[in-house]
Amino acid sequence: MDTLRITGGQVLRPDGTTEEADVLVDRDEGTILDIAADIDADADETLDAEGCLVMPGLVNAHCHVSMTLLRGHADDKQLDAWLREDIWPTEAALTPEDVRVGAELGLVEMIKSGTTTFADMYFHVPDVVEAIDEAGLRARVGHGAVTIGKDDEDAWADIDESLAIAREFDGAVDGRIRTAVMPHSLTTVGEEYLREVTAEAHADDIPVHYHANETTNEVDPIVDERDERPLAYAQDLGMLTADDFLAHGVHVDDEEIELLADAGTGVVHCPASNMKLASGMAPVQQMLDAGVTVGLGTDGAASNNDLDMFDEMRDAAMLGKLASDDASAVAAPDVVQMATAGSADAIGLPGGALEVGGVADIAVVDLDAPHLTPANNLVSHLVYAARGSDVRHTVCDGQILMRDRDVLTLDESAVVDRARETAAALYERV
Ligand SMILES: N[C@@H](CCSC[C@H]1O[C@@H](n2cnc3c(=O)[nH]cnc32)[C@H](O)[C@@H]1O)C(=O)O
Ligand SMILES: [Zn+2]
C-alpha cells in the first residue's frame, strides 16, 4: 500500500472541533486510513503540518471555471445586460482550446486556495475534463444549455449536447468526474426543453443543475405568466429532487424554502456574485433553519472576480448577517460547514469532512501569520481572517496537488503565460 502521512497539525473534525493529530492516507484508494495523535506507521511520503490547520478540501459548488479568461472583462453591470452585452458575445468566440486554457488557470487558482472539488457549468466540456484530469481535482461537470433566442433545431441540439455530455463523462477520470445536465436557468430554457431534459436525465440517474431565482427579473416573468413561483414551476417540471441542485436561490419566498427543504434539493449560495451583480441577498439563515441543504460557490470569475473559497466564506458570513439584520446569523461554524460538507452534499460528491474511510481531499492551512494571530478560534479564523494564499498543501483523492505552495500537477507559470496570451488573442478577435 502506498501511504501519505500529514503530521503535526490541528485537525478539523466534522463536528467543528479541532485536535492535534496526524492523518494517514491510503494513496492507492485515495482514502483516509487513520486520524490519531502521533501515528508512527512508516509512510511513503510525509507532509509537514506543524503550526497548520488540516481541514477538508473546500468544495466550490457552483462555478464556470473557464470564465477566468473573462476576469475583469466587464464589471459594474446588472446580470441581464452583463450577460447579453458582454459575456455571451465574448463566450461565442471561445474555442475549445481557449476553454481548456481558462480551465487550467482556474484549476491552478483553486488548488492554490485549497479547493479540491467543484461543480462546473460550461461548454466544450471535454476540454474542461482533460484539464481536470491533469490537475487532479474532483468535479461534477455539465454542458450549460440555453434555448431562448434559438430556433427549435438549435435549441434541441444544445439540450441534446447537455445530455450526451452527461452520459459520456459520468464516472470518467478514475471516477473523479461525475456529471449533471445543466439547463442554464428557468427563464433562458423553455418549458418543453426543461421537462424533457429533466425526464431523460433522471431516467439515467443523472442530476439536474441550473440557475434559479437569482434576480427579480428571473422571478417576475414566471409569476406573471404562470401565476406560480419559479420553484413551484421547477417542481412541476420534475427539477426539484434530492439529487438536483440550483445556484443562487436569492429571491425565494417562505413556500419555496419549504419546497426546497421537503425535496432535499441543494441550493448553492454565491454571495460575491450576488453582491457584485446587485442580484440581492439570499435568506441563507432562513434556509438553514428550515433544513435546506446549502452549499457555497464562487460562480464564474467574471462575477466575483476570483475563485478563492476563503473570500467566499467571509462574504457569506458578512452578507448573511446583513440579510438577517442579525449579527448572530450565518455564524462561522455554519459557513465552514456550508463550504465543505454542505457543498459536497448539495452537488452529490464525496468529501467535505475528514473521516476515517472517507476520501482524502484535504487542505492544510498555515496559521503562522500575523493576520491569524493569536490563534483564539480556528474556525473563526478560517471564515473571517484567512485567505486562499494561506493554504500550504492541497491533497485530492490522496494525491498531493500542491506541496509548500508549489503546484505539482500543472506548470503554474506556463499556465499563467498561456492564459495571458489566449485572453489577449480572444479580445483581439471580438
Ligand atoms: N450553451 C450556452 C452556454 C451556457 S454555459 C453557462 C453560462 O452561464 C453564464 N453565467 C455566468 N455567471 C452567471 C450568473 O451569475 N447567472 C447566470 N448565468 C451566468 C456563463 O457566462 C455561461 O454563458 C450558450 O451557448 O450560450
Ligand atoms: Zn453561474
From TrEMBL:
Taxonomic lineage from the root: Archaea, Methanobacteriati, Methanobacteriota, Stenosarchaea group, Halobacteria
Annotated substrate binding sites: E91, H184, E214, D299
Summary of the function given for this chain in its UniProt record: Catalyzes the deamination of 5-methylthioadenosine and S-adenosyl-L-homocysteine into 5-methylthioinosine and S-inosyl-L-homocysteine, respectively. Is also able to deaminate adenosine.
Descriptive protein name: 5-methylthioadenosine/S-adenosylhomocysteine deaminase
Organism: Haloferax marinum
Gene: mtaD
EC nos: 3.5.4.28, 3.5.4.31
Keyword Hydrolase in record: yes
Family: Belongs to the metallo-dependent hydrolases superfamily. MTA/SAH deaminase family.
Cofactor requirement: Zn(2+)
Record keywords, A-Z: Hydrolase, Metal-binding, Zinc
Residue numbers binding Zn(2+): H62, H64, H211, D299
